[in-house]
Amino acid sequence: MERFRIRPAAWLAGFAFWTALCFAQPSRAELFVADTFTLENGLQVVVLPKHLAPVVYQILVYKAGAADGAPGKNGVAHFLEHLMFKGTKRFGDGVFTREVDRHGGNDNAFTNQDVTAYHQQIAKRDLPLIMEMEADRMNGLILSDPIVLPERDVIIEERHQRIENNPGAQLSEMMDAVLFLNHPYRLPIIGWQHEMQTYTTQDAIDFYTKHYAPNNAVLVIAGDVTTEEVKALAEKYYGPIPKGNVAPRTRLQEPEAYAPRRVTLESEFVDQPAVSRTYLAPSFRTAEGNQAYALQVLDEIVGGNNVGRLYRRLVVDKGLADYAGCNYDASPYDQGSFAFWGAPRQGVKVEQIEQAIDAEIADLLKNGVTDQEVADAKSRMEISAVKSRDSLNGAAQFVATRIATGSSLDDIQAWPDRIQKVTAADVLAAAKAVLVPNRSVTGMLLPKPGAATGAPPPTPPAPIGGGIQ
Predict the structure, then answer these.
(1) Using one digit for the tens of pLDDT, what is the confidence trace for 297-329?
(2) Residues contacting 379, CB < 8 A, separation 6+
(3) Where is this region: Disordered (predicted)?
């Protein structure tokens, strides 16, 4: 099982762009062929038939992530993700992965602030196997101190490797901690080390009992299947699991912020400095009207790969930056984010990159975007989407996580119509509503004076919807 991972810069820069678009078709059509039904126990099932090869992909997403943890226990969501592979009475420790491997498939899992997901890809003939095993561990997990406590040491070591030895990840944690004044997104998904050391078997059992139930999950099956086939198997394996007593999701919300925040981190492991700025933004669930779609178009205009304003002006035209970009993340259940970043070329000061980004934001807020920029952005988005539609697991993950964070299948299918209705005026209005200094944090990642480095360039901080595996 793949574990904790910080998203690399290239993937990060395109995340919101790709996830919003990778299944798009012209506005007269839905995004993709899909069907949905709900079992009597409350489990919503979505079927995405794709008959290109005798392969299927299953993803089960629970509507519970790090931000749903008890005070001092936010990392338990990720801890439990690890423990879910420790086995049940029917399928013992490690059997799940060994069986998937034995049948030529692969399996994995991930946790973010809002969801925890388990997924497998395998030959169609083995779909009953992975459905049976996944359903079994929904309410059959066996946990005890001899099983749990060694895994606690594993996740603590992961934090050492992925956070304590990564200045970019450290800066990202610090930026989240000051960007959010009250909301649990301010806490790291993996948890603070001093709190991780206190996790108990009962903590894991409590989170499992509270959140892992069919009426708090979304199941998506993609690949060489029909709705009738999936429904029969879902009723057989998931149907007998009783509903859970799942409480409504309640979280602390953000107060008004009175000042922008700034974080500077110096490290001997940093060779190339970098700057990033993150603004709070509405998510798909919390945005009003078409604001989220306007922000997606803005993201493409300003940060589009190799053609966006930031890349053209800072990297190509002015020759100031090695890289520059932006990212709108609309995926979280509560607050989303809009982030900018850049790293200077040799001989250029990082402060010049910050000033150049400031100038681009000021120009955007004063002059807006043109109708032609909007039209070109939509065209690029559609082309990129069409190229990405062959992804079996990408479609399933996107649908499952969107539904688990508050969208309906109808919302997802309506994306082409909504994006096509975005105007230049909509983009400017959304930019003015979001790019407000008091709702931002700026991060500076700098080499430690006098330190011998040679480390690779830092990656930008991950958006708040980022997950760990």
Answers:
(1) 999 999 988 899 999 999 999 999 999 999 999
(2) none
(3) 447-469
Instruction: Compute the distance between CA of residue 457 and CA of residue 56 in angstroms, rounded to an integer.
Output: 38
Residue 70 burial by Cβ neighbours in a 10 Å radius (0-12, 13-18, 19+): exposed
Kind plus residue range of the DSSP H or E element containing 295: helix 291-303
Give the span between the Cα atoms of 343 and 271, in whole angstroms.
11
Place of tokens 């982030």: 339
- At 90, the pLDDT band (50, 70, 90 cuts) reads very high
Mean pLDDT of 77-86: 98
CA triplet 399, 284, 17: central angle to 5 degrees? Answer: 70
Residue 420 to residue 50: CA distance in whole angstroms: 26
Q: Judge contact between 118 and 84, C-beta under 8 A.
A: yes
Please determine, looking at this structure, whether the domain spanning 261-447 carries the CATH number 3.30.830.10.
yes
Does pTM top 0.85 for this prediction?
yes
User: Which residues face 339 on adjacent strands?
Assistant: 278, 327
**Of 467, 468, 409, 18, the residue nearest 220 (C-alpha):** 409
Place of tokens 């993150």: 278
CATH topology of domain 11-237: Cytochrome Bc1 Complex; Chain A, domain 1 (3.30.830)
Query: Which entry of 30, 81, 99, 134 is annotated as an active-site residue?
Result: 81
Closest to 459 in 3D by CA, of 180, 213, 259, 162: 162
Cβ-based neighbours of 385, under 8 Å, separated by 6 or more: 21, 22, 23, 24, 25
What contacts 449, CB < 8 A, 6 or more positions away? 266
DSSP class of residue 444? E
Instruction: Give the three-class secondary structure for 262.
Output: strand
d(CA 343, CA 273): 6
- CB burial readout 126-154, b (16+ within 10 A) else e: bbebbbbbbbbbbbebebeeebbeebbee
Contact 240, 39 (CB under 8 A): no
Whether 354 is catalytic is no
CA distance 23 to 416: 10
Whether pLDDT at 103 is above 50: yes
CATH 3.30.830.10 domain span(s) along the chain: 11-237, 261-447
Q: What is the pLDDT of residues 444-465, one digit of tens each?
A: 999 998 654 544 444 554 555 5
Instruction: Give the C-alpha separation, 204 to 220, whole Å.
Output: 25
Does 228 score more than 90 pLDDT?
A: yes
